[in-house]
Amino acid sequence: MKWLLFALALAFLVLQYRLWFGDGSLSEVVQLTEELKQQKQRLRELEERNRKLEARVLDLQQGFDAYEEQARQDLGMIRRGETFYQIIDRPAAGASRP
């Protein structure tokens, strides 16, 4: 009977060791859960970015207005007949000139 109790206690300790420190232990599960949360957050960010890029592509494919907006923002272009005004800030009083 003593050997049976000893064998059961030993088996219990081995199983406890695997539960706390072995493969698939509780600490590993917690770590993997945290990594999964981070990956899901990154996935949401990338999906949002993809949606914005897809909308931009569709705008560029469908109309001239998107091209014009792009040219105005990125290249500083203007239409014929429009007047371009550039406002230059004056340096603050007492500031050294280069």
What keyword list fits this structure?
98 residues, mainly alpha, 3 helices, 70% helix, 0% strand
Summarize the structure.
The protein contains 3 helices and no strands.
Provide structural commentary.
There is one protein chain. It contains three helices and no strands. It has a domain at 10-75. With 98 residues, it is mostly helical. 70% of the residues lie in helices and 0% in strands. The chain is elongated and about 105 Å long. Helix 2 (26-62) crosses helix 3. The N and C termini lie far apart (96 Å).
Shape: elongated
Number of helices: 3
Number of strands: 0
Class by helix and strand content? Answer: mainly alpha
**Unreliable residue runs:** none
Radius of gyration from the alpha-carbon trace, in angstroms: 33 Å
User: H/E series, N to C?
Assistant: HHH
β-strand amount: under 5%
Mean pLDDT: 84
The profile of the biggest β sheet is:
none
What is the terminal separation in angstroms? 96 Å
Residues in helices, as a percent range: over 70%
